[in-house]
């Protein structure tokens, strides 16, 4: 089995070697015999492939009538030609024409019966080894010329003059007496310039084939090719046009089927049949009137005259068009009426078309209106009958447009605008009435609409264009301008029609931006025949000025401290008195602010919004965050222009400058309040004179550098200078913060806090470490970080808020004190970090090695053992077939 597999694998290699060995030069000529007609030019191709050497190959041609070959011509040896063919080769009657590097053609001009025989094409070897064939032969048979082509004998003249739309027929005769079985291919051609174009062909396979551009006419039956007796071929052309003028000829080619079953053209002849001239039909279309002007409701009368040189039977078709521009095309114009060649007129109610005489067509439009103004033109076409009973349009022309102007019957009326309500102050109402007066010639077909405009007041010679407030369509649909759209939708501006002749504009709450000039435009609309409305006239009213004098708003706020002196724990009280001018029925909103010293850590910006009271007397706490004194501040309205602020149980941290911020409001539109002006009072200072103790805070750690998993101790130590206090008279709020960076460029994170009541609050942590905060003495607070991790590093500091009990038993809050931060560094214990991974890795490696040794031993001992039994053979016996 092993030897058989080796033999099988060698088969593809042997086949490849065999193919490479069998590959060689191949010389090809057409399969014979080749049938050619005497006197024609013959081209016999020869090609070579699968050769070695240069890409351009040489060829030798030889000829034999019987057995011996005579040398004709060569591509590479000028002395190759035999004496018999030197004269014909020298005159060019026999030559070689190279078509590519590996192909040539033997061309024999005016072949004769003596040229009938065998032709051999050979190629000199350029291969390394001789392989394939180096020559090929083809048999050529020369037959006599039996093809005859002629024109029709019945027609004496070869020149035709026809009118556009006429029909004509041309005939030619073609016959062959060839001894071979040949087919004829007949093509009718036309030459209108310098080249001949195919019209219609009857191929050698018996198929009709129209030329380029004649496919549609062939399908419609306008061009036909018929065969008749005596081998005649007739071309019939219907509906002749200008493109059919020119010279016509009949081109006949003779075809024979070759040995390879393909068709080969062996000769071609033609004969010119006739010269055809097509005379275009002249047609003039003119409207008798140039420009027309009519009055609305009158009739419009236009006449279209047509003139043609056409004789015989024909019919005219007329269409009237209308357009608003003289440059519009027929596709853009509107068709008014049409009369076809059978004198059938399309239907219309107010427009009529009549045939006055053979060449005149009258258009009558009754009851014209303004929309009939424009340009009218007439289009005419001439139709002639065909042999099959149908009609063909031979010419079509369009007249020049005639301008028609329809003068509208405008109504006569005047417009008067007055203000029934004018504002004295802002937010007062304004009402304007636009009235139609002295209306005449306003029949039922007239409708009035209004447009409202606004023009701003400007000082000097500046010109301002008017702004559209609103306008009405012919169907009284209100269209809003950009200036009034939002206010109209909110109900602040109302447009209405009070009576038939009166339109109203009402501004519910007039503002300063509404001051200016107002005017209205009354438009008259006329109804047309199709029940559409067209604007016929606009009349503009005189303008009405809406203006009132205004003065700047003034607001004065004065703050007064009711108690000139008080101490911490007492009530602070101040009033704010407000006075205003040029504000209509004002109301006030008050905001109390405090400017704390910059040393106050709770308010680094300096200004605090404490409490506010709006114009509707609604009180709101703003930035007051002292939860122990939620009810410790009160703001109330004493009088219409006086407000009182109280702060109970004042603390030392309340020291600062207090002000009243007052906003004056005036009534606005829709019951809303509009902000008028703002005012700021003088400051009132709260200053506590005290000689109490001074507190300082510092942070300390015995070991600021620790390893992961160890305990970190941080101490917040409070020291006191000045007056000594008993431990029971002082208390502290302590908060610990950390900044997780070296340069304090990040936001601090709250770790834990301990208030003065001993309640500890811790923030949420993400790691596994834990915190504890405790007071270890009256002035010392310790923060412990248990099981430190790498994210516990950073700058740590504490903020302490002292509380001191006064002699009256009231606890006073001192300003916050921030300690200088201390940096806590957390290192990693490399030995402890890698101890357990190393031990686990060594153990796993040892176990895997022992397991591999055990698997190898078992495999070699039991799985891979094989017993081989050898059969003894006698030396003098033949070898067994298994060993072959």
TrEMBL record:
<keyword id="KW-1015">Disulfide bond</keyword>
<keyword id="KW-0472">Membrane</keyword>
<feature type="domain" description="Ig-like">
    <location>
        <begin position="283"/>
        <end position="380"/>
    </location>
</feature>
<keyword id="KW-0812">Transmembrane</keyword>
<feature type="domain" description="Ig-like">
    <location>
        <begin position="411"/>
        <end position="540"/>
    </location>
</feature>
<dbReference type="InterPro" id="IPR036179">
    <property type="entry name" value="Ig-like_dom_sf"/>
</dbReference>
<feature type="domain" description="Ig-like">
    <location>
        <begin position="693"/>
        <end position="801"/>
    </location>
</feature>
<keyword id="KW-0393">Immunoglobulin domain</keyword>
<feature type="domain" description="Ig-like">
    <location>
        <begin position="164"/>
        <end position="272"/>
    </location>
</feature>
<feature type="domain" description="Ig-like">
    <location>
        <begin position="12"/>
        <end position="131"/>
    </location>
</feature>
<dbReference type="Pfam" id="PF07686">
    <property type="entry name" value="V-set"/>
</dbReference>
<keyword id="KW-1133">Transmembrane helix</keyword>
<keyword id="KW-0732">Signal</keyword>
<dbReference type="InterPro" id="IPR013783">
    <property type="entry name" value="Ig-like_fold"/>
</dbReference>
<feature type="transmembrane region" description="Helical">
    <location>
        <begin position="836"/>
        <end position="857"/>
    </location>
</feature>
<dbReference type="InterPro" id="IPR051102">
    <property type="entry name" value="IgSF_V-set/TM_domain"/>
</dbReference>
<protein>
    <submittedName>
        <fullName>Prostaglandin F2 receptor negative regulator</fullName>
    </submittedName>
</protein>
<dbReference type="InterPro" id="IPR013106">
    <property type="entry name" value="Ig_V-set"/>
</dbReference>
<dbReference type="InterPro" id="IPR007110">
    <property type="entry name" value="Ig-like_dom"/>
</dbReference>
<dbReference type="InterPro" id="IPR003599">
    <property type="entry name" value="Ig_sub"/>
</dbReference>
<keyword id="KW-0675">Receptor</keyword>
<feature type="signal peptide">
    <location>
        <begin position="1"/>
        <end position="24"/>
    </location>
</feature>
<dbReference type="GO" id="GO:0016020">
    <property type="term" value="C:membrane"/>
</dbReference>
<keyword id="KW-0677">Repeat</keyword>
């Amino acid at each position: 089995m092993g030897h058989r597999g080796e033999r099988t694998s060698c088969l593809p290699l042997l086949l490849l070697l065999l193919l490479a060995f069998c590959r060689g030069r191949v010389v090809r000529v057409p399969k014979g015999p080749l049938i050619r007609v005497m006197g024609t030019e013959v081209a016999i191709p020869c090609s070579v492939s699968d050769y070695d050497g240069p890409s351009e190959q040489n060829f030798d041609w030889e000829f034999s009538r019987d057995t011996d070959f005579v040398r004709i011509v060569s591509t590479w040896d000028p002395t190759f030609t035999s004496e018999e063919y030197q004269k014909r080769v020298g005159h060019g009657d026999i030559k070689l024409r190279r078509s590519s590097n590996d192909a040539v053609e033997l061309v024999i001009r005016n072949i004769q019966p003596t040229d009938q025989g065998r032709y051999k094409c050979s190629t000199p070897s350029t291969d390394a080894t001789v392989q394939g064939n180096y020559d090929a032969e083809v048999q050529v048979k020369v037959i006599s010329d039996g093809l005859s082509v002629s024109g029709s004998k019945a027609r004496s003249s070869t020149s035709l003059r026809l009118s556009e739309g006429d029909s004509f027929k041309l005939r030619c005769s073609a016959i062959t007496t060839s001894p071979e079985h040949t087919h004829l291919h007949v093509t009718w051609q036309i030459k209108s310039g310098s080249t001949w174009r195919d019209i219609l062909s009857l191929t050698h396979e018996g198929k009709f084939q129209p030329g380029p551009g004649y496919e549609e006419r062939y399908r419609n039956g306008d061009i036909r090719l018929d065969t008749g007796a005596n081998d005649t071929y007739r071309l019939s052309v219907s509906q002749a046009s200008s493109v059919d003028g020119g010279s016509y000829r009949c081109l006949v080619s003779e075809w024979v089927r070759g040995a390879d079953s393909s068709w080969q053209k062996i000769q071609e002849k033609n004969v010119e049949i006739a010269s055809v001239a097509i005379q275009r039909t002249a047609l003039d279309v003119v409207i008798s009137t140039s420009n027309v002007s009519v009055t609305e409701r009158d009739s419009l009368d236009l006449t279209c005259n047509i003139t043609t040189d056409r004789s015989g039977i024909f019919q005219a078709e007329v269409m009237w068009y209308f357009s608003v521009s003289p440059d519009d095309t027929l596709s853009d114009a509107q068709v008014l009426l049409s009369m076809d060649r059978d004198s059938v007129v399309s239907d219309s109610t107010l427009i009529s078309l009549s045939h006055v005489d053979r060449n005149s067509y009258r258009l009558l439009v009754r009851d014209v209106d303004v929309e009939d103004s424009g340009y009218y033109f007439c289009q005419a076409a001439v139709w002639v009958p065909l042999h099959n009973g149908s009609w063909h349009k031979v010419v079509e022309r369009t007249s020049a447009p005639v301008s028609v102007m329809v003068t509208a019957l405008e109504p006569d009326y005047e417009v008067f605008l007055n203000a029934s309500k004018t504002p004295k102050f802002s937010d007062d109402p304004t009402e304007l009435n636009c009235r139609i007066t002295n209306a005449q010639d306003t029949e039922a077909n007239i409708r009035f609409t209004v447009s409202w405009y606004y023009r701003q007041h400007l000082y000097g010679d500046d010109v301002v264009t008017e702004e559209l407030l609103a306008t009405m369509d012919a169907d009284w649909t209100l269209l809003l301008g950009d200036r009034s759209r939002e206010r109209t939708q909110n109900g602040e501006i109302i447009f209405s029609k009070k009576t038939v002749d009166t339109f109203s504009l009402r501004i519910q709450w007039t503002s300063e931006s509404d001051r200016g000039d107002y005017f209205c435009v009354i438009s008259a609309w006329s109804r047309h025949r199709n029940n559409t409305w067209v604007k016929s006239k606009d009349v503009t009213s005189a303008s009405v000025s809406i203006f009132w004098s205004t003065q700047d708003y003034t607001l004065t706020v004065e703050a007064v401290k009711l108690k000139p002196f008080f101490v911490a724990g007492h009530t602070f009280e101040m009033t704010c008195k407000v006075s205003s001018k040029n504000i209509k029925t004002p109301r006030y909103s008050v905001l109390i602010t405090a400017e704390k010293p910059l040393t106050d850590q709770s308010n680094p910006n300096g200004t605090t919004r404490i409490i506010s009271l709006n114009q509707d007397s609604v009180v709101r706490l703003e930035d007051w965050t002292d939860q122990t004194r939620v009810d410790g501040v009160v703001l109330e309205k004493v009088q219409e222009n006086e407000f009182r602020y109280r702060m109970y149980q004042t603390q030392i941290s309340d020291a600062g400058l207090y002000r009243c911020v007052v906003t004056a409001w005036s009534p606005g539109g829709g019951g809303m309040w509009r902000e008028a002006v703002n005012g700021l009072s003088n400051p009132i200072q709260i200053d506590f004179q005290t000689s109490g103790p001074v507190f300082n805070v510092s942070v300390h750690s015995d070991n600021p550098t620790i390893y992961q998993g160890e305990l970190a101790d941080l101490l917040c130590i409070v020291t006191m200078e000045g007056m000594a206090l008993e431990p029971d008279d002082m208390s502290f709020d302590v908060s610990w913060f950390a900044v997780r960076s070296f340069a304090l460029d990040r936001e601090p994170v709250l770790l834990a806090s301990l208030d003065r009541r001993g309640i500890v609050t811790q923030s949420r942590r993400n790691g596994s470490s834990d915190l504890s905060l405790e007071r270890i003495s009256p002035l010392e607070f310790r923060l412990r970080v248990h099981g430190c991790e790498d994210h516990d590093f950073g700058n740590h500091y504490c903020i302490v808020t002292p509380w001191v009990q006064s002699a009256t038993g009231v606890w006073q809050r001192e300003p916050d004190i921030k300690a200088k931060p201390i940096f806590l560094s957390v290192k990693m214990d490399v030995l402890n970090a890698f101890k357990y991974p190393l031990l686990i890795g060594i153990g796993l490696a040892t176990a895997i090695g022992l397991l591999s040794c055990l698997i190898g031993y078992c495999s070699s001992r039991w799985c891979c053992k094989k017993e081989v039994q050898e059969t003894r053979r006698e030396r003098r016996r033949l070898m067994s077939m298994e060993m072959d």
